[in-house]
């Protein structure tokens, strides 16, 4: 079965398609119209594609790398019957078409030499430098791991470690997988399915995270054809039928061109057909496809400001579908993607989705981090010494999301936990940005809570988090965060504080879940005590029979049974309470303290009260509600003038956010 059989032929598109079409560069493009004996001619196609993006590139290093790769792999054949050199050539050509810089292409040509030939890393380093050697070594480490079911978790743990300092390793790996998927038809069906599932579950989401849409969309279609052949065939038929007649998108595109021309805006208006999986998703969502569902309009302009000018004209001259508007120019996605999304109603009520972006944005949208050129080259346009405020894009070779994955993979207790958590994290295709009080940002998955924000900001220090303020308002740690929220996290002074198991119910990020579980694993005795305390003070739970405050009972949690009122004259074991005399009634005061529940709260409050020279006459603690606790104290003061100092002392206790007179 040929490579084309593994990916059934795509109908020829009649309309303009500015998508980087990686499929069109097949075996003939690689080898040229000459015989196999003249393989060196093949590097010319890579050089041509490379020069299109980097006109001043030094091609001599590519020629030397090709000569070494071809001579090293000479005599080796792929399962398809082709010379093995066609594989590194195809991988390199894919990356060249995407705009990869020379170092990446050099490493791509050599990526199989150390694994499959007698060439050593030392030879690569001596001939091409440490940077190329590092990339080749990273890809080699990935290739040495078996892709069997039992090996998958460790495979991708090693992938993250290998790519931790340079995403170009992952870029080469993705291009390598794309070419292998194209030629998967020579393998047994069960092996095709296994490789396709791994590609679907991990590599496609990684391509999305890297912003390499051109790789992602083709990988999706190839996986779709293998795992769901009947639906793929049906979708192919629908696309072919849609292209046999006139599309309403043609009319809308023409109208848009006229509107922008009259407005004096220089723009290129194109029809961008959807790929197979995209069409299938729309059909699953809407049931019956409309004529405009097979593509979207793409408007390319020169400057960022032109994007908004185009948007204004479209919303003025057409009826906009406001719910479809999204601004990824002002707030780029985590994978560098920038574009304005909108939808307008055309003639006859046809609704067309429109993407508006600059040519630069389009290049990055298609090729992601691959389009950034040499990531180690200094940015001449950036002011000297200026650090990006958003750590997500501070270093394109180490995006923030990859740093987070690397951090928690080191803490994952076993490969299976890592694997399941990785897949769950990659399945999150939407992220939000929240602001810290210092102006910096945290990037979290959609649906993340204050618990996630705490661990993203403080790491293990978040174990002593007791609450938060979201947009200035007090909130529990379970509170979900929205895009653009400002979050201030409140920490207890006691560094020995630990989390609650219920935090696991509210944590969405791997970092938070693994850190919380790790704390309980490392503190089994504290964990057992904490579990008993949580159960004792859960809503509806009763305190232990006969428990009296002031005895020898442990007060490490919420400190006494809920709704238990102390009789007048009884005090906790601080030794400071006394039954008030009749002549001291004017010095009695009742205060209400609102706080977040935490261990040792009672001890700290009673210590603060005692320090302010007040005695507890009676006290009541209401059952906790959403991690909040309400205390009511009747206190005897030795001096009525000491009330302000007493209130300040109680408010200074960690976790207490308000103290007022009853």
Describe the protein's architecture and organization.
The protein has 662 residues and is of the alpha+beta class. The protein has 26 helices and 15 strands. Strands 1, 2, 3, 4, 5 and 6 form a six-stranded mixed sheet that branches. Strands 8-7-11-9-10 form a five-stranded mixed sheet, with helices on one face. A hairpin with a 6-residue loop joins β13 and β14 (628-637). α5 (86-98) crosses α11 (168-182), α12 (189-209) packs across α20 and α19 runs parallel beside α23 (510-522). The longest helix is centred in the N-terminal third of the chain and has 21 residues, at 189-209. Residues 1-18, 22-40, 145-151, 379-398 and 536-585 have low confidence and may be disordered.
Any key phrases for this structure?
14% strand; disordered N terminus; 5-stranded mixed beta sheet; alpha+beta; globular; 26 helices; 662 residues; 6-stranded mixed beta sheet; 15 strands
Unreliable runs: 1-18, 22-40, 145-151, 379-398, 536-585
How big is the Rg?
Answer: 32 Å
How many angstroms does the end-to-end distance come to?
82 Å
Give the oligomeric state.
Answer: single chain
Largest sheet: 6 strands, mixed
What is the number of helical segments per DSSP (H or I, 4+ residues)? Answer: 26
Arithmetic mean of pLDDT:
77
Shape descriptor: globular
Q: Helix coverage percent of residues? A: 40-55%
Strand content bin: 5-15%
Structural class computed from helices and strand pairing: alpha+beta
Number of strands: 15
């Amino acid at each position: 079965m040929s490579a084309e059989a593994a990916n059934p032929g795509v109908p020829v598109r009649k309309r303009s398609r500015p998508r980087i079409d990686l499929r069109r560069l097949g075996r003939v493009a690689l080898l040229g119209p000459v015989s196999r004996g003249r393989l060196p001619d093949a590097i010319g196609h890579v050089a041509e594609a490379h020069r299109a993006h980097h006109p001043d590139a030094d091609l001599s290093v590519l020629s030397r790398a090709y000569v070494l790769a071809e001579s090293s792999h000479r005599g080796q054949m792929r399962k398809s019957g082709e010379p093995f050199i066609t594989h590194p050539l195809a991988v390199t050509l894919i990356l060249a078409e995407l705009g990869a810089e020379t170092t990446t292409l050099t490493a791509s040509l050599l990526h199989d030499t150390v694994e499959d030939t007698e060439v050593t890393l030392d030879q690569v380093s001596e001939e091409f430098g440490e940077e190329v050697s590092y990339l080749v070594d990273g890809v080699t480490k990935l290739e040495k791991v078996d892709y069997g079911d039992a090996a998958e978790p460790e495979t991708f743990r090693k992938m993250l470690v290998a790519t931790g300092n340079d995403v170009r390793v992952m870029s080469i790996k993705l291009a390598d997988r794309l070419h292998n998927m194209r030629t998967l038809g020579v393998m047994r069906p069960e092996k095709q399915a296994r490789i396709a599932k791994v590609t679907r579950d991990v590599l496609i989401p990684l391509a999305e995270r890297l912003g390499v849409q051109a790789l992602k969309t083709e990988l999706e279609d190839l996986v779709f054809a293998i795992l769901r052949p009947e639906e793929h065939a049906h979708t192919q038929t629908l696309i072919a039928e849609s292209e046999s007649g006139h599309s309403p998108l043609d009319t809308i595109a023409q109208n848009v061109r006229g509107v922008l021309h009259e407005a004096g805006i220089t723009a290129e208006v194109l029809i961008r057909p959807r790929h197979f999986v995209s069409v299938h998703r729309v059909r699953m969502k809407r049931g019956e496809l409309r004529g405009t569902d097979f593509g979207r309009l793409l408007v390319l302009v020169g400057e960022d400001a032109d994007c908004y000018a185009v948007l204004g004209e479209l919303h003025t001259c057409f009826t906009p579908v406001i719910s479809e508007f999204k601004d990824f120019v002002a707030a780029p996605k985590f994978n560098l993607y920038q574009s304005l999304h909108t939808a307008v109603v055309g003639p006859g009520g046809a609704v067309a989705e429109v993407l508006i972006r600059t040519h630069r944005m389009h290049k990055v949208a298609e090729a992601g981090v691959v389009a950034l050129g040499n990531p180690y080259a200094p940015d001449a346009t950036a002011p000297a010494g200026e650090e990006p405020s958003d750590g997500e894009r501070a270093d394109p070779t180490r995006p923030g999301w990859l740093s987070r994955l690397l951090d928690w993979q080191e803490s994952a207790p076993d490969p299976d936990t890592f694997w399941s958590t990785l897949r769950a994290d990659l399945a999150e295709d939407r992220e939000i940005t929240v602001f810290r009080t210092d102006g910096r940002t945290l990037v979290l998955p959609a649906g993340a809570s204050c618990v996630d924000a705490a661990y993203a900001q403080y790491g293990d220090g978040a174990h002593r988090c007791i609450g938060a303020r979201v947009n200035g308002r007090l909130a529990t740690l379970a509170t979900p965060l929205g895009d653009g929220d400002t979050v201030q996290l409140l920490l207890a002074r006691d560094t020995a504080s630990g989390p609650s198991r219920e935090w696991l119910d509210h944590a969405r990020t791997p970092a938070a879940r693994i850190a919380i579980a790790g704390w309980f694993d490392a503190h089994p005795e504290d964990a057992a005590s904490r579990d008993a305390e949580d159960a004792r003070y859960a809503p509806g739970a009763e305190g232990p029979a006969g428990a009296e405050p002031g005895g020898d009972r442990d007060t490490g949690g919420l400190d006494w049974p809920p709704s238990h009122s102390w009789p007048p004259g009884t005090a906790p074991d601080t030794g400071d309470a006394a039954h008030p005399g009749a002549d001291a009634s004017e010095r009695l005061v009742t205060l209400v303290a609102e706080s977040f529940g935490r261990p040792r709260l009672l001890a700290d409050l009673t210590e603060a009260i005692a320090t302010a020279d007040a005695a507890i006459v009676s006290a009541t603690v209401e059952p906790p509600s959403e991690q909040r606790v309400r205390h009511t104290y009747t206190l005897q003061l030795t001096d009525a003038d000491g009330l302000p100092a007493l209130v300040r002392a109680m408010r200074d206790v960690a976790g207490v956010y308000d103290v007022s007179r009853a």
